[in-house]
Design brief:
5-stranded parallel beta sheet; 251 residues; single chain; alpha/beta; Rossmann fold
Length: 251
C-alpha cells in the first residue's frame, strides 16, 4: 500500500499515476471534499497528528508515503516525516514549485498570518482574503476594531461556511468557490467586492497565484503575500518525479 497525503491537484495526479502502474493507493485528506476528489483505492478523511499518522502507517502496512499536501500545511508535513521515521517508512515530499512575484504592482511579503492581518487592515475599508477559512479568525480579529470589512474566498464546504458564520461574516462577505481562478475572474471579484487590498498565500502556478497577482496589479491593489516556510531538502517538484521515486523505492 502506498499512502498519498492528498487534498491538492498534485496529490490527485500522483494517485492516478500510481494506480495506472498497478499500485494500491490509500489517500489521506483533511476534508470530505478532498477525499471525494482523490480517486484512490482507499480514502481516509480527517486531520492526523503524529501518533495517528504512525498508527495508520502500521495498520495499513504502508510501504512508502508521498506527502503532496499544500505548501502551507507545514504541521501535517512535520507529523508525516516524524511518523515515517518512527515506523521505518520511506517518505517523500512533493513540493509545489513557487511562482515568481509579479514585476509590477505593490507587493508586500510577510512572514505569517498575524503579520499579514496587521498589515492588510491598514490599506482601506475592505480586505479580500484568498487564504481560506483556517486562519480567518486572525484577520477578523485585526479588522473588527478598525471597522474594516473582511471578504473571505473559501472552498464550498460546509465546515468553511460554518466557520465564516461563526466569526460574524454574512453571506455578502463570503465567496464560496473552488479555484484556481483566471485573471478575468479575479478582476471581476476584486471589483465587485470593492477590495482595498488582496491577501494571498504564494500557492504557485497550480494554485492560481500568478493570475491573482496580475489582477491585483492591474487594479492597482496592494497584494500582501504570506511567505512559505522552508522547503524540504528532499522534495521533488512534479507528480511524475514522485511516481518514479515510488517505483524505485518499492519495486
Amino acid at each position: 500500500m502506498i499512502l498519498v497525503l492528498a487534498g491538492t491537484r498534485e496529490g490527485r495526479e500522483v494517485v492516478e499515476l500510481l494506480r495506472r502502474h498497478g499500485r494500491q493507493v490509500l489517500a489521506s485528506a483533511v476534508s470530505a471534499y478532498g477525499g471525494e476528489l482523490a480517486g484512490a483505492d482507499l480514502v481516509r478523511v480527517g486531520a492526523l497528528d503524529r501518533e495517528g499518522m504512525e498508527g495508520l502507517l502500521r495498520e495499513q502496512r504502508v510501504r512508502a508515503l508521498v506527502d503532496a499536501t499544500h505548501p502551507y500545511a507545514q504541521e501535517a508535513s512535520r507529523n508525516a516525516r516524524a511518523a515515517c521515521r518512527a515506523a521505518g517508512v520511506p517518505y517523500l515530499r512533493l513540493e509545489r514549485p513557487p511562482a515568481a512575484l509579479p514585476p509590477t504592482g505593490e507587493v508586500h511579503q510577510v512572514a505569517d498570518y498575524p503579520a499579514a492581518a496587521e498589515l492588510a487592515v491598514t490599506f482601506g475599508s475592505s480586505v479580500f482574503l484568498s487564504t481560506g477559512s483556517r486562519r480567518l479568525a486572525v484577520f477578523v480579529a485585526a479588522a473588527r476594531p478598525r471597522g474594516v470589512r473582511v471578504v473571505a474566498r473559501v472552498l464550498p464546504e460546509v465546515e468553511a461556511l460554518i466557520e465564516c458564520r461563526r466569526l460574524g461574516l454574512g453571506p455578502a462577505d463570503v465567496v464560496a468557490m473552488q479555484g484556481p481562478f483566471t485573471r478575468e475572474l479575479n478582476l471581476a471579484l476584486f471589483r465587485h467586492y470593492q477590495a482595498a487590498v488582496v491577501v494571498s498565500k504564494e500557492s504557485g502556478e497550480a494554485g492560481g497565484f500568478p493570475e491573482k497577482a496580475a489582477a491585483a496589479a492591474e487594479l492597482g491593489l496592494p497584494l500582501v503575500v504570506i511567505r512559505r516556510g522552508q522547503a524540504d531538502p528532499v522534495a521533488v517538484a512534479s507528480p511524475r518525479e514522485a511516481l518514479e521515486w515510488v517505483l524505485r523505492t518499492v519495486p
